[in-house]
């Protein structure tokens, strides 16, 4: 047994090492989606592949990294993992993500004993998928690019040029793709080195016992929190806009959550089957999305460790949209992003005092690419965007923050886009009236407008536009996400997820959704409404309509006239 003080010192040493992995990655990556957006998943794991320390980025990546390492162990065996080795895996059903999110990991040895793993997953820009930038209408895995099933990038510390050459010759952007993967390798080496230093300082046995204690403590915290939750069973249904092949046909997500004294069961039975397009997700990603919500309502104030999820169980049907099997297409993995709030929608029925209304419900990603006339080179950059969060029993939803699936992420600054690409950002700000009215208002989304100054492609990965962000306890629903092409012209067109070939002068607007409201709008404090009016979050027209107000010319509430109006309308 390791004493508690030593365990805590080691725990913080591992967390510091994970943060250093992230800093190394961001300093060396070629891709703005990595170093600006922080679209990564980083972890340090024990010898079984269970995470003991991570750095926040895309939340669903961390648990997906666990699954990827464990599949690699089953595939290769631990004896095939030698000191100095580094592996890459992007076979979706094992790696728990699509082909452009390769997991790079390195076994950690100390005195020839395997004591853990360092992992780093990022989004790379091209691995010979059928379309540049992103695939939105693949019908089987063969269209989704180069597949690497736990292949050695480094063998006992020596770069494996065979694998790097395969990657290089299977990418439209070889310099960037190889550069990003090499940055992952460098990040993993950092994790290996720092973990070995802890083993040298405290002893390998002490370190591995501390890892075990960290996960046991994480499990105890989750079980204590689970005991305090309401018990029962609740079911919710929500939808992904479409699968990219059966255009306009909603894809059903059904989730039943059961809480007992011993466990939480998240059952996806009833979700769509036989989905043709690439919104299917591997089981590992569904489990990771489920873990995110379980963590958020049990132990949100402590770092992620695998032990946190021992009291949680996920049930799926093979071949469904939440449990893809070969050769089902998986490239557009938005189902895994949207799944979390389906779980929350179910939980809100049993614990409305603890669960917020829906957020805008999507990461609303933009990818632009083309040829830059200033340099003559190919360019590709992108950004995820903030959404409004749902109102809660105690406060308004946050305005314009990153979706709950990516709590460690950011968006790409205007200056980066305009410096690196032929894009001109015409406007960027809050989206007025997008938050649902309520006693506690839903947060508002944002709107960002891209004008192309040269021909190019604008890929919009937005799959929550056809259904409204749901509300709680009588609040109003939020305004859904929207993609608007050439707004204010005779060519204006409203879209969702789409692959757009644009000419110079055309404009693409990414308008993100607002959160649902919480509680009866007529119970909202007048001072809060007046503050919303001053800040421009709510227009005078919407305030009069949704809150049944009479406003003065100074945009303050006429209390007596409002009381008369409400009495007449009721």
UniProtKB/TrEMBL annotation:
InterPro entries: Hydantoinase_B, Oxoprolinase-like. The keyword Hydrolase applies. Keywords: Hydrolase. One of its GO terms (cellular component) is cytosol. GO terms for molecular function: 5-oxoprolinase (ATP-hydrolyzing) activity; N-methylhydantoinase (ATP-hydrolyzing) activity. Its EC number is 3.5.2.14. This is N-methylhydantoinase B. It comes from Leucobacter aridicollis. It holds the Pfam family Hydantoinase_B. GO terms for biological process: glutathione metabolic process. Residues 3-521 form the Hydantoinase B/oxoprolinase domain. It comes from the Bacteria. It is an enzyme of class 3 (hydrolase).
């Amino acid at each position: 047994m390791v004493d508690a003080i030593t365990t805590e010192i080691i725990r913080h040493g591992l967390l510091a090492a994970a943060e250093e992995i992230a800093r190394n990655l961001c300093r060396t990556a070629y891709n703005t989606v990595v170093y600006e957006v922080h679209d990564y998943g980083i972890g340090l794991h024990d010898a079984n592949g269970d995470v003991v320390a991570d750095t926040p980025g895309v939340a669903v990546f961390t648990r997906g990294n666990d699954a990827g390492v464990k599949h690699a162990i089953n595939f290769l065996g631990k004896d095939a993992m030698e000191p100095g080795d580094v592996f890459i895996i992007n076979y979706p059903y094992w790696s728990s993500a699509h082909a452009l999110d390769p997991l790079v990991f390195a076994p950690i040895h100390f005195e020839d004993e395997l004591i853990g793993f360092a992992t780093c997953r990022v989004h790379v820009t091209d691995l010979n998928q059928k379309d540049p930038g992103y695939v939105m209408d693949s019908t089987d895995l063969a269209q989704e690019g180069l597949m690497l099933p736990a292949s050695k990038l480094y063998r006992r510390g020596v770069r494996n040029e065979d694998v790097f050459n395969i990657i290089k010759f299977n990418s439209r952007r070889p310099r960037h793709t190889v550069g990003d993967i090499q940055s992952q390798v460098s990040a993993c080496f950092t994790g290996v080195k720092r973990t070995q230093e802890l083993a040298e300082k405290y002893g390998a046995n002490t370190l591995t016992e501390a890892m075990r204690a960290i996960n046991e403590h994480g499990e105890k915290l989750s079980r204590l929190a689970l005991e305090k939750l309401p018990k029962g069973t609740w079911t919710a249904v929500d939808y992904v806009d479409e699968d990219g092949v059966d255009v306009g046909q909603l894809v059903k997500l059904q989730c039943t959550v059961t809480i007992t004294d011993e466990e939480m069961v998240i059952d996806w039975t009833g979700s769509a089957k036989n989905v043709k397009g690439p919104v299917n997700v591997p089981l590992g990603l569904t489990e990771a999305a489920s873990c995110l919500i379980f963590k958020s309502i049990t132990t949100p104030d402590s770092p992620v460790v695998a032990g946190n999820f021992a009291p949680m169980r996920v049930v799926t049907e093979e071949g469904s949209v939440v449990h893809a099997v070969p050769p089902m297409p998986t490239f557009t993995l938005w189902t895994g992003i949207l799944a979390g709030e389906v779980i929350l929608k179910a939980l809100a029925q049993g614990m409305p005092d603890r669960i917020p209304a829906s957020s805008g419900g999507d990461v609303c990603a933009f990818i632009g690419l083309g040829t830059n006339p200033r340099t003559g080179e190919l360019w590709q950059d992108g950004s995820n965007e903030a959404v409004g969060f749902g109102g809660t029993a105690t406060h308004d939803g946050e305005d314009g923050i990153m979706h709950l699936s990516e709590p460690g992420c950011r968006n790409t600054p205007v200056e980066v886009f305009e410096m690196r690409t032929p894009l001109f950002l015409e406007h960027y700000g809050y989206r007025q009236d997008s938050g649902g009215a309520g006693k506690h208002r839903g947060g508002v989304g944002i709107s960002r407008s891209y004008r192309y100054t040269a021909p190019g492609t604008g890929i919009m990965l937005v799959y929550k536009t056809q259904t409204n962000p749901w509300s709680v306890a009588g609040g109003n629903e939020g305004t859904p996400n929207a993609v608007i092409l050439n707004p204010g012209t005779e060519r204006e067109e409203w879209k969702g997820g789409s692959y757009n070939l644009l000419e110079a002068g055309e404009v693409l607007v990414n308008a993100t959704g607002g959160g649902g409201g919480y509680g009866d709008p007529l119970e909202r404090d007048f001072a809060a409404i007046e503050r919303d009016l001053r800040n421009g979050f709510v227009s005078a027209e919407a305030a009069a309509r949704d809150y049944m107000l009479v406003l003065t010319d100074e945009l303050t509430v006429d209390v007596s006239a409002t009381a008369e109006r409400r009495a007449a309308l009721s």
